[in-house]
Amino acid sequence: MLYLFFASDESENVKKMKSCSADRRLSVISHHLLLPINDDEAAIIISPSPTSSSSSDPLFANTPRAPEDPILGVTVAYNKDPTPVKLNLGVGAYRTEEGKPLVLNVVRKAEQLLVNDRSRVKEYLPIVGLADFTKLSAKLILGADSPAILGNLVTTVQCLSGTGSLRVGAEFLARHYYQRTIYIPNPTWGNHTKIFTLAGLTVKTYRYYDPVTRGLNIKGLLEDLGSAPSGAIVLLHACAHNPTGVDPTLEQWEQIRRLIRSKTMLPFFDSAYQGFASGSLDEDARSVRLFVADGGECFIAQSYAKNMGLYGERVGSLSIVCRTADVASRVESQLKLVIRPMYSNPPIHGASIVSTILKDRNLYQEWTLELKAMADRIITMRKQLFDALRARETPGDWSHIIKQIGMFTFTGLNTKQVAFMTREYHIYMTSDGRISMAGLSSRTVPHLADAIHAAVTSVV
Ligand code: PLA
């Protein structure tokens, strides 16, 4: 536990904290700096001891070492381990049966087409990104026949993958929305808290996962959102909830939608796994489409990292569904003001790959098949791991492994058991007991099952 505070003249800072959004953000951060924080949160903290030019110490000598990221740091630790039997089940990145990263065939084809097209140049994209890409991206999540698209009620901007889309959305909300509180599920992807806090919003949680049933705590969820202030922003995972792998049923989504609309709360969907949950792009967009169909406002952050395997290309988009076309175009004009000083305009290559695939009927079809194959392989891994634990008579009910959806299994293993598995079996995973099923293969399932068995029977 650390306690941090501004070392500089406080009254100066207080004077500066007026109403503009940057100042609000400072005020939120300074508030956080005065609170006890854990190691994870410390990663986002500004140095508590700014280096002064009069000091004889080297510059930044007082800069504290930040901890590694709880997810990406797992890969750092894995890379340092010289053992050949090591297994990385930390970050959610798809691997083949051979344990290798996969570039989709359809992506290779699209890249070839792009390289062969001599008319393509490397000019800057517009601030909002590649027009074909943003149009097709909105269609992918909302459906081609969506009335919101047909009525020009949606503005879509190309952003830096899912993270960048959430970040731009958060910045926009901090500047233009009257409610400053966002409710995120407990638990959720660890970066959500940091993204929204840094934008100047206040982050609160709503109950989501019930560790006893290993299912959705729908009662707690409805109670918490029911007692949230009206207008609050609500972050929802469109499908394949990370880290739990637990999604609401369609009926439960409908209950959630009714509650959110009745309290005029603002839904913000994080869609990082469209196609990865069920293997069907349309099926995995049902939650979002349910909300958009009622005509209310909605934010959607999309990522092509997982479903097109474009992790490092950083392709994503933010769509904001508004009630009128005029509002949508004004919102877009303000999004440009958010983006321009952040990174000016987005990169061209990844978005060109996506739009090449989305606009060609054959390539699109081929993509859906490759996507389904990835989703199916993950489902097969679930079955194999479940069977392997049953065969070992590992104590406990492991049926959640086959019930959960998407890239991750939320095993229920505790921090000590995870540490044991890393130390004794060189299995790398996040300390909350999440494993990336996409990192497993038939060859490595027995090793993981042995490790889980040993952890459960020898570490409490
Ligand atoms: N939203 C959720 C729910 C995610 O799980 C992730 C990625 C993102 C957004 C952002 O992805 P992008 O910016 O790469 O598009 N989560 C990963 C990787 C797969 C990570 O932590 O960055 C994870 O292992 O949880």
Automatic annotation (TrEMBL):
Swiss-Prot/TrEMBL cofactor(s): pyridoxal 5'-phosphate
GO CC entries: mitochondrion
Keywords (A to Z) from UniProt: Aminotransferase, Pyridoxal phosphate, Transferase
Root EC class: transferase
The reaction(s) this protein catalyses: L-aspartate + 2-oxoglutarate = oxaloacetate + L-glutamate
Domain Aminotransferase class I/classII large stretches: 86-452
Name of this protein: Aspartate aminotransferase
Organism: Tagetes erecta
